[in-house]
């Protein structure tokens, strides 16, 4: 793999400052009279976590590999010689994932997580469970109509294991890394929103796996007070415009975002709307369709990002459609909408008819406001 950028404590601080500027701008757009210092102080205070930090083992090490499985997701996490797998790609990716794990020297998986029951996440897990002994297997549900999910359950049972549905707040140790389940915080009809959301901490470095979680579940997760501020974000739903909203990004403040996506996929992922939001937040984007497998190594203080192919940052998140990256986006840095909880109308932040701050609610997209039952303001959106 070709090594690219090492993220030091100074780099992390600089990127945090840039991300906090985004958070401050959004806060000020919602309530112009709110004190800037208060907004920044609040933005810098992470929510309390029930997980207890563990010091990295001396001589140990941590890696998180976003395996290039095309238009799917599979993430291998290894710490101090112990491994876990989050998703296994499509059914056809099963042999690829098995080979990748074997080449990495994996002989056992402490935990296997199926983020949710869609084939591009659970499909390859049957092959994995057929090859590697596991300590536990988790999913948001225990039954689904698809054959690929049933195969995953079958091979889990063949190991003498029961597929478990973990509770929010559950904590696991993987070597000296701590894994915590943050979501989903409620029940959803949309299978994407049922994705198991995992926070992983190794020393001072942190990672967030979100599966295909979309903006409704993102907003609920933020409202729950979950500890979301991390260094590296697995960008939800392969970079779809329906995920990675501003509200969520302001809570996560990632330095790096990894998008697992297939080259030339029929969905058009990653969508420009999501890429634009990541640019606005100053996130360093890595894409498996361009860079191949993305691997991050951590010593508990600093982390290094490496990939199969050397691809310039401006190509992975271009500001021009041709990928030249020579021009900043002409779109506003923030496009949020302000709802009036009394009138059920929503406005642009620049609207002169904004409600009092106590009656405001934030929407990260026009569609989200409409779906919530709000109607556009006739003055600023008419």
TrEMBL record:
InterPro entries: Ada-like_dom_sf, Ada_DNA_repair_Zn-bd, ComA-like_MBL, Competence_DNA_uptake, Metallo-B-lactamas, RibonucZ/Hydroxyglut_hydro
Leader sequence residues: 1-23
Gene3D superfamilies membership: DNA Methylphosphotriester Repair Domain, Ribonuclease Z/Hydroxyacylglutathione hydrolase-like
Biological processes per GO annotation: DNA repair; regulation of DNA-templated transcription
Positions of the Metallo-beta-lactamase domain: 71-263
GO terms, molecular function: DNA binding; methyltransferase activity; zinc ion binding
Keywords: Activator, Signal
Domain of life: Bacteria
Pfam families found in the cross-reference section: Ada_Zn_binding, Lactamase_B
CDD domains, per database record: ComA-like_MBL-fold (cd07731)
Alphabetized SUPFAM superfamilies for the sequence: Ada DNA repair protein, N-terminal domain (N-Ada 10) (SSF57884), Metallo-hydrolase/oxidoreductase (SSF56281)
Alphabetized PANTHER family for the sequence: DNA INTERNALIZATION/COMPETENCE PROTEIN COMEC/REC2 (PTHR30619), RECOMBINATION PROTEIN 2 (PTHR30619:SF1)
Name listed for the protein in its UniProt record: MBL fold metallo-hydrolase
Protein source organism: Candidatus Faecalibacterium intestinigallinarum
Source species taxonomy: Bacteria, Bacillati, Bacillota, Clostridia, Eubacteriales
């Amino acid at each position: 793999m070709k090594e690219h950028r090492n993220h030091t404590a100074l780099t992390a601080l600089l990127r945090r400052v840039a991300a906090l500027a985004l958070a401050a701008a959004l806060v000020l757009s919602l309530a112009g009279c709110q004190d800037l210092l208060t907004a920044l102080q609040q933005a810098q205070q992470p929510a309390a976590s029930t997980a207890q930090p563990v010091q990295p083992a001396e001589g140990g090490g941590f890696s998180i590999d976003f395996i290039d499985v095309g238009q799917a997701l599979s993430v291998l996490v290894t710490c101090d010689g112990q491994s876990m797998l989050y998703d296994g790609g499509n059914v056809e990716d099963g042999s690829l994932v098995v080979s990748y794990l074997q080449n990495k020297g994996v002989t056992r998986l402490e935990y296997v997580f199926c983020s949710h029951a869609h084939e591009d996440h659970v499909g390859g897990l049957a092959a994995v469970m057929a090859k590697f002994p596991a300590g536990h297997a988790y999913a948001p549900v225990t039954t689904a109509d698809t054959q690929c999910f049933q195969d995953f359950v079958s091979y889990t049972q063949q190991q003498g294991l029961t597929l478990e549905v973990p509770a929010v707040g559950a904590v696991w140790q993987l070597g000296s890394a701590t894994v915590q389940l943050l979501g989903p915080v409620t029940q959803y009809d949309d299978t994407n929103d049922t994705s198991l959301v995992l926070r992983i901490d190794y020393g001072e470095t942190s990672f967030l796996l979100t599966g295909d979680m979309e903006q409704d579940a993102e907003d609920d997760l933020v409202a729950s007070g979950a500890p979301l501020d991390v260094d590296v974000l697995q960008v939800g739903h392969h970079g779809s415009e329906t995920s990675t909203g501003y509200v969520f990004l302001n809570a996560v403040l990632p330095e790096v975002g990894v998008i697992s996506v297939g080259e030339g996929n029929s969905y058009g992922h990653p969508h420009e709307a999501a890429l634009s939001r990541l640019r606005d937040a100053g996130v360093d984007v890595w894409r498996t369709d361009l860079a191949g497998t993305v691997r991050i190594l951590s010593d508990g203080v600093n982390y290094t990002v490496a990939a199969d192919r050397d691809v310039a940052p401006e190509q992975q998140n271009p500001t021009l459609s041709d990928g030249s990256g020579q021009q900043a986006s002409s779109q506003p840095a923030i496009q949020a909408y302000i709802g009036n909880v009394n009138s059920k109308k929503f406005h642009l932040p620049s609207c002169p008819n904004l409600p009092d701050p106590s009656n405001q609610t934030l929407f990260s997209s026009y569609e989200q406001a409409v779906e919530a039952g709000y109607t556009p303001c006739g003055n600023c959106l008419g």
